[in-house]
From TrEMBL:
PROSITE patterns: HMA_2. PANTHER family: INOSITOL POLYPHOSPHATE KINASE 1, INOSITOL-PENTAKISPHOSPHATE 2-KINASE. It comes from the Eukaryota. One of its GO terms (molecular function) is ATP binding. This is Inositol-pentakisphosphate 2-kinase. Phosphorylates Ins(1,3,4,5,6)P5 at position 2 to form Ins(1,2,3,4,5,6)P6 (InsP6 or phytate). Phytate is a regulator of intracellular signaling, a highly abundant animal antinutrient, and a phosphate store in plant seeds. Also phosphorylates Ins(1,3,4,6)P4 and Ins(1,4,5,6)P4 to produce Ins(1,2,3,4,6)P5 and Ins(1,2,4,5,6)P5. Belongs to the IPK1 type 2 family. GO terms for cellular component: nucleus. Residues 446-509 form the HMA domain. Its cofactor is Zn(2+). The EXKPK motif is conserved in inositol-pentakisphosphate 2-kinases of both family 1 and 2.
Length: 566
């Protein structure tokens, strides 16, 4: 008997998150048919229309039916939900591996159910998402699939499940011959890095992410660990963690900026009982666990292979698009007619089948660049065997794990025009940033920055010296313990200098900034740690170590009649 979800069933589904195209709900009720499942509901643009298709009409355009003519079920799909399910099942699953891809099943719903769901989740949706999209109430079906933040069967007693969702992004730097010379920066900077600059300018993010996709896709255990650590530090909407299906780290839809002390402490506490490490070390061990699973599973190798189907870059693929839609190429029209023919003009003389392959491969690669990776872990019981497992050396624990790809959405053919325009926008923004940095670099002058900081002992001085020395553009560093000051000369930004020093002494402050002056050195720097007696004789002595720098210190017998050891 077919199940149809009605208004009374809406209360059993809770908001999990959302992307650009769908809202994801998790099942919280008691029906065996839905335990351990999530639902994907299609969205539409606010104030936008969503015309319904009858069973004899395809949801694809004429050009898209030509593009996907080798996948008959996809070509004849009457709704968007069916088309996306078929696309996931027949196109993406063979490429990424069926054990890592879940196409889900279609379940009919009533309009009352969708209206009630929309009311229930409105308070949990990010404002940014609410402003641009709403639940599409004209849909007759939703997609039900396994909740990949859990193991099959849902939450089991005494078997906690912790899962991480990662958006890997594009894992390679393009080398297409169709990339214009003026855009050669593409061959040295990642798309993610460049897009971050645009997002910062448009205030979608408040700071640049430290994450580099090339680290995650490198195949190097050390670089993979660095990538996971950077994602944790600046998660944005690219890193989330769930415990027994409930979000414990990351944002519901808009992401979070940087992991602060409060969020870090809450996450550390949430890991108690799962990661058997001492307090303060559980997060570090969890990052190691995720990195180990990514390294051992090698699933990103397959994802990278699919991403590399885009071997023309959008600068080449856009010309194939105009061949398919049989329109004059708007890109070629933008070029100066007086210039010699460009490389991309040759793409307009290729066979239609080749144009179709270029566009098809590009859209499949776009899906692979925009998907998410879900890795779920469950502590193994002694002597238990089963699914693939990883060993966490820091806690002497073994974990079963499973890996799935989600959000494998079908990209519309017309989206290629948007991709091209976005590419231009990203490049313009990033190029402007590089030009400004170049101008600033040429105009940069030597500055003398004086920082006031407590220099209580030789260890204090070494720590401060070591921190400042990591900053680029420094010519000299002079420490004056008698005045508790550090004088830094060079092209380095004073803000970077004080930020570094405050990692050691929060009370540090900038005393002055200005051009350096020639100063006569009337003393030997190697006489810093010497004393003179009342007769002027030099007497060597052992520097003291202050309480802040070590767990012990030494005091003179003049003040105490005993030795204190802490």
């Amino acid at each position: 008997m077919e199940i149809k979800l009605e208004q009374k069933d809406a209360a059993d589904w809770s908001y999990r998150g959302e992307g650009a195209a769908n809202i994801v709900l998790a099942y919280t009720g008691s029906s065996p048919s839905f335990i351990g499942k999530v639902m994907r509901i299609t969205k539409k643009a606010r104030n936008g229309s969503s015309p319904k298709c009858d069973s004899n009409q395809s949801v694809l355009t004429d050009e898209e039916r030509l593009l996907w003519r080798n996948v008959e079920e996809l070509v004849t799909s009457p709704t968007k939900e069916i088309a996306e399910q078929i696309y996931t099942q027949l196109v993406m699953s063979p490429l990424l591996g069926s054990k890592h891809v879940d196409a889900g099943i279609r379940v009919p719903v009533t309009r009352d159910f969708l209206e009630c769901v929309e009311k229930n989740v409105i308070k949990q949706r990010p404002a940014l998402r609410i402003d641009v999209s709403v639940v599409d109430l004209e849909r007759d079906f939703v997609i039900i699939m396994s909740d990949h933040s859990l193991f099959p069967g849902g939450v089991l007693k005494d078997e906690p499940c912790i899962s991480v969702e990662i958006k890997p992004k594009c894992g390679f730097i393009p080398s297409s011959e169709f990339i214009a010379e003026r855009n050669s920066v593409k061959r040295s900077a990642t798309r993610f890095q460049m897009h971050q600059v645009l997002k910062l300018r448009e205030q979608e993010i408040s700071e640049l992410s430290e994450y580099d996709p090339l680290d995650l896709f490198s195949g190097s255990k050390e670089r993979i660990h660095k990538a996971i650590k950077d994602l944790y530090t600046t998660p944005q909407n690219n890193f989330r963690v769930f415990l027994n299906g409930s979000l414990i780290f990351g944002g519901l839809g808009g992401g979070i900026k940087r992991t602060n002390a409060v969020a870090g402490k809450a996450f550390e506490d949430a890991l108690e009982g799962i990661i058997l490490a001492e307090n303060g070390l559980r997060t570090t061990s969890f990052i190691q666990l995720v990195a180990e699973a990514v390294y051992c599973s090698r699933v990103l190798d397959g994802l990278l292979e699919v991403q590399r189907l885009d071997n023309f870059d959008i600068e080449g693929a856009i010309h194939a698009y105009y061949n398919i839609v049989c329109q004059p190429c708007a890109v070629c029209q933008q070029l100066d007619e007086a210039r010699p023919p460009h490389k991309c003009s040759s793409l307009h003389s290729i066979h239609m089948d080749e144009s179709l392959k270029i566009a098809r491969d590009y859209l499949i690669a776009a899906t692979a660049k925009d998907c998410s990776l879900m890795i779920s872990f469950r502590p193994m019981k002694d002597g238990a065997f089963g699914s693939p497992h990883v060993y966490l050396q820091s806690t002497n624990q073994s974990f079963n794990y499973k890996v799935n790809f989600i959000d494998l959405d079908l990209k519309p053919l017309k989206k290629m025009v948007d991709y091209y325009e976005l590419d231009k926008k990203i490049l313009n923004c990033f190029t402007q940033k590089l030009e400004m940095e170049h101008k600033d670099g040429n105009a940069r002058t030597m500055d003398k920055t004086v920082v006031s900081v407590e220099l209580l002992c030789s260890k204090c001085r070494k720590k401060v010296m070591k921190l400042i020395a990591t900053i680029e553009g420094i010519t000299s560093i002079v420490l004056d313990p008698s005045k508790n000051t550090v004088t830094v000369i060079g092209e380095a930004d004073p803000v970077k200098i004080i930020c570094k020093v405050r990692k050691f002494r929060k009370s540090a402050a900038i005393t002055s900034i200005g051009p350096p002056k020639e100063e006569k050195k009337d003393h030997d720097p190697y006489k810093k740690d010497v004393m003179k007696d009342t007769k002027g004789m030099v007497i060597p002595y052992t520097p003291k170590t202050c309480q802040r720098c070590d767990v012990w210190y030494v005091v003179n017998d003049d003040f105490y009649s005993y030795c204190t050891i802490m």
